[in-house]
């Protein structure tokens, strides 16, 4: 984990006091930048070099004052010199940098002033040395803190798919394929993400590839196997004669690195492609798209159609907000405004959200679980921030919302693995946000708590045995739809098994079986259920078959409806309520239609 923001700000103030009178670029610039990186708990020698030789536009060689490949280029001047000139000089080096070396940030300084340019977002910030501690958030990327942006489909995710897809294709051509290729690439993705977000020591994976492997790639596969072995080795069990950089890799746990794979053999082109992947800023990847992104990597023809292969965050929120999130937020807002017993109620509320458990019985790559967990952690962070304001809070505050509150069932092995990995990624991102917002540290490694992902056919297992229904509070998800003309023999068999004896059930969409299983599962509980579905299950001949069964035999009732959104999809939420349940249907614009009974 990165060092805390409070510690960074304290170091920044000390740094400003130490260097407030320095003016000479040549005499003290390198010491200045060594101390600057120490503000963020980073050893400059580990990630960046001084006087990096690069050919400029005029074909002559220049020397970059300080260069962190793929991340940061620094141009330093003596006190009072033009920062505009320094920035222009910095850009001259770009023409002959390799793609994976191009930095996202350019930082120019004259000891007294700093100007940071974020080239991706086209944003710049300028401030005095004495104001460094006040502007430290603009430099948080150095320590591994990155402000997340959540969108339906950001170009950065498509770029990531293309980069990893290139590596996938090269390895596939070399004969490394199938299950081993999938596991290998997912391990690489985890390492790249960990490298950029502070889960590992800053950039150790990238440094190891650059500094400890031959340029022709001949030993790269073996060196990667060594990394994977170390990531699955307890610290106390590491060999004493390890390479010092290899020894810095932590113990991960979580079974991601347990399986032994054949060695993937690289050449110079493959090594350069992996370095290009290392140069990408993986901290910008939103974990809710991680699974869909990975699946698109494996399918060349789908790489430019990323948005078609996952349920967008926007649509996930349409389900979870009315199902439970809005109610939780409203309760929190009510408690925040209390005049008496506020701290007691906040603690009780904290305990409540830490015990909520969720089941997605068709979890795929886990995006419903990921977004739900992220939203719950955001509420917890706001709650802890509110508790910090209270004078009667005693002792240290802790974050207790955990991935072990989540259950998922997925029929295919690899999406199930991806779902677990994506949950660890969002867990780490939320730990960073926690530290940044309220300075509460929560370690991401080794992976201790665990969400439960069952690799089985959800229509052939007892949900109650896997996820005891007396513990589960909400069922969510996006089950497969499939009309009867598109179902395989196995899928038709699933429907017959679940709708045993229900006349005409052979014409039902495949998704209908999840509504039936959920209706059976929630009997005698307070569980609320919400699925994304096709609106065809409320049309034509399916209505009398499916809804007669649910309404008459399981006390389920459609309470009110909204127009469906694009592609004929809509959302149904079920809940048992006294002697009946209800279903809510939501559309893109959330405009209510007439009540349906």
List its salient traits:
six-stranded mixed sheet; 4 domains; eight-stranded mixed sheet; 18 helices; alpha/beta; 597 residues; tt1808, chain A
Written description of the protein model:
- The protein has 18 helices and 14 strands.
- Helix 7 packs antiparallel against helix 9 (268-279).
- Mean pLDDT is 83; it is low at 147-155, 304-309 and 578-597.
- The radius of gyration is 27 Å and the shape is globular.
- Helices cover 41% and strands 13% of the residues.
- The chain has 597 residues and is of the alpha/beta class.
- It starts with a helix and ends in an 11-residue tail after the last strand.
- The strands form two sheets. Strands 9-8-7-10-11-13-14-12 form an eight-stranded mixed β-sheet, with helices on both faces.
- The chain has four domains: 5-142, tt1808, chain A; 155-309; 311-478, no CATH class; 479-597, no CATH class.
How many DSSP H or I helices?
18
Q: End-to-end span in angstroms?
A: 53 Å
Percent strand: 5-15%
Helical coverage, percent range: 40-55%
C-alpha geometry: globular
Radius of gyration: 27 Å
Query: What does the average pLDDT come to?
Result: 83
User: Given the helix and strand composition, which structural class is it?
Assistant: alpha/beta
- Low-confidence parts: 147-155, 304-309, 578-597
Topology, number of strands: 14
> Major sheet, described briefly?
8 strands, mixed
**What is the total number of structural domains?**
4
For the biggest β-sheet, the strand order reads 9-8-7-10-11-13-14-12
């Amino acid at each position: 984990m990165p060092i805390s923001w409070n510690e960074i700000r304290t170091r920044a103030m000390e740094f400003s006091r130490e260097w407030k009178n320095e003016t000479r670029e040549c005499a003290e610039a390198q010491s200045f930048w060594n101390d600057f990186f120490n503000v963020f708990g980073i050893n400059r020698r580990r990630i960046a070099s001084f006087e990096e030789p690069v050919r400029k536009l005029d074909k002559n060689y220049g020397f970059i004052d300080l260069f962190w490949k793929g991340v940061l280029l620094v141009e330093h001047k003596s006190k009072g010199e033009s920062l505009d000139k320094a920035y222009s000089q910095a850009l001259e080096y770009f023409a002959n940098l390799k793609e994976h070396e191009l930095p996202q940030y350019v930082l120019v300084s004259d000891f007294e002033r700093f100007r940071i340019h974020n080239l991706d977002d086209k944003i710049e910030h300028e401030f005095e040395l004495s104001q460094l501690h006040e502007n430290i958030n603009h430099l948080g990327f150095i320590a591994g803190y990155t402000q997340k942006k959540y969108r339906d489909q950001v170009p950065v995710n498509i770029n990531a798919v293309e980069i990893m897809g290139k590596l996938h294709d090269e390895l596939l051509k070399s004969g490394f394929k199938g299950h081993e290729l999938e596991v290998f690439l997912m391990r690489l993705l985890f390492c790249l993400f960990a490298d950029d977000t502070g889960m590992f020591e800053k950039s150790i994976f990238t440094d190891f590839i650059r500094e400890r492997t031959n340029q022709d790639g001949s030993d790269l596969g073996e060196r990667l196997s060594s990394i994977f072995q170390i990531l699955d080795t307890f610290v106390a069990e590491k060999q004493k004669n390890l390479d010092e950089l290899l020894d810095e890799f932590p113990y991960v746990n979580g079974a991601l690195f347990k399986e032994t794979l054949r060695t993937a053999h690289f050449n110079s082109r493959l090594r350069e492609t992996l370095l290009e992947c290392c140069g990408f800023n993986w901290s910008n990847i939103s974990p809710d798209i991680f699974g869909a992104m990975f699946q698109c990597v494996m399918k060349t023809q789908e790489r430019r159609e990323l948005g078609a292969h996952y349920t967008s965050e926007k649509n996930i929120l349409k389900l979870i907000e009315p199902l439970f999130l809005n109610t939780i937020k409203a309760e929190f807002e009510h408690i925040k405004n209390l005049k008496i017993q506020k701290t007691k109620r906040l603690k009780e509320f904290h305990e409540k959200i830490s015990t909520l458990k969720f089941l997605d019985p068709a979890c795929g790559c886990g995006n419903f679980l990921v977004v739900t967990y992220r939203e719950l952690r955001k509420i917890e962070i706001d709650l802890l921030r509110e508790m910090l304001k209270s004078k009667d809070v005693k002792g240290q505050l802790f974050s207790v919302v955990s991935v072990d509150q989540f259950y998922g069932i997925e029929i295919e092995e690899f999406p199930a693995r991806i779902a677990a990995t994506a949950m660890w990624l969002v867990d780490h991102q939320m730990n960073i946000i926690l530290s940044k917002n309220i300075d509460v540290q929560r370690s991401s490694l080794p992976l201790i708590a665990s969400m439960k992902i069952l690799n089985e056919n959800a229509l052939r297992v007892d949900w109650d045995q896997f996820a005891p229904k007396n513990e589960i509070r909400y069922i969510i998800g996006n089950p497969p739809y499939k009309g009867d003309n598109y179902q395989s023999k196995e899928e038709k068999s699933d429907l017959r098994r679940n709708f045993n004896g229900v006349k005409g059930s052979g014409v039902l969409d495949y998704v209908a079986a999840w509504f039936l299983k959920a209706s059976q599962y929630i009997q005698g509980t307070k569980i609320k259920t919400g699925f994304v579905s096709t609106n065809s299950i409320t049309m034509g001949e399916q209505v009398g078959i499916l809804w007669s069964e649910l309404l008459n035999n399981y006390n389920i009732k459609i309470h009110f409806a909204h127009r469906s959104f694009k592609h004929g999809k809509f959302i149904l939420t079920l809940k048992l309520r006294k002697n009946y349940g209800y279903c809510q249907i939501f559309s893109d614009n959330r405009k209510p239609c007439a009540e349906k009974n």
